[in-house]
Amino acid sequence: MKNEERLVVDGYLYGNDADVKLAKEEKKTIEYLETKINYDDIQTTLKIYNKAVKDRIFKTPVGFEFLKKMRAEMIKRGMPEENIGAIPLYQIFSKEADVRPVRVFQIKENKSDNKEILRVSLWANIVLVVLVIGMFVLTLFGDNTNILNYKYKIENEYSIWQQELEEREAVIREKEAELRLE
């Protein structure tokens, strides 16, 4: 009997501890909402009700009871019942489920088609690998600077500049030496 008592919340006996925890959390949410909701402001109450239903805030009978109370308060204060959405339960209570036609997609196994698809896929992959290798070759040996060859390109550029500067300095030194001799 004590084991059953720990599974009871607001007169409802739940099947496991997770459901009890959920019901207790919903009870705290309800206590908070009760302090904030002004039932005389029907439009605000309707917005809160619709948000709670849309976001599936309540999943246990404790929460459904609160939604039913909100519904009753809005009707009592003059809100037409057809303006208030129904409380969705999101579960089936009877053993017989609705029989609805289900679309079944059958995959036809035709081995010749599978072999053809495999062959086309293999060739497409080979072409793609060749293209990727070609892109790397162009990147490595192309004239444009890129992330793979920027170091060498910059080093070559600086070495060319340094060589030109050294040649100019040599020419200037020769001219200076000639001027001194004269």
Explain what this protein looks like in three dimensions.
There is one protein chain. Helices cover 64% and strands 2% of the residues. The protein has 6 helices and 2 strands, in the order αββααααα. It has a two-stranded antiparallel sheet with strand order 1-2. The protein is elongated. The relative contact order is 0.05.
Per DSSP E runs of 2 or more residues, the count of β-strands stands at: 2
Unreliable residue runs: none
Strand arrangement, major sheet: 1-2
Structural class: mainly alpha
Instruction: Figure out the total of helices.
Output: 6
String of helices and strands = HEEHHHHH
Shape: elongated
Helix content range = 55-70%
Largest sheet: 2 strands, antiparallel
Question: Roughly how many Å is the radius of gyration?
Answer: 40 Å
Average of the residue pLDDT scores = 84
Taking the alpha carbons of the first and last residues, their distance comes to: 124 Å
% residues in beta strands: under 5%
Summarize the structure.
The chain has helices at residues 2-5, 17-36, 42-54, 61-76, 111-141, 150-181; strands at 8-9, 12-13. It is mainly α.
Keywords for this entry:
two-stranded antiparallel ribbon; 6 helices; 2 strands; 2% strand
What order do the helices and strands come in, and which of them pair?
Blueprint: H1 2-5, E1 8-9, E2 12-13, H2 17-36, H3 42-54, H4 61-76, H5 111-141, H6 150-181
Antiparallel strand pairs: 1-2
Helix pairs in contact: 2-4, 3-4
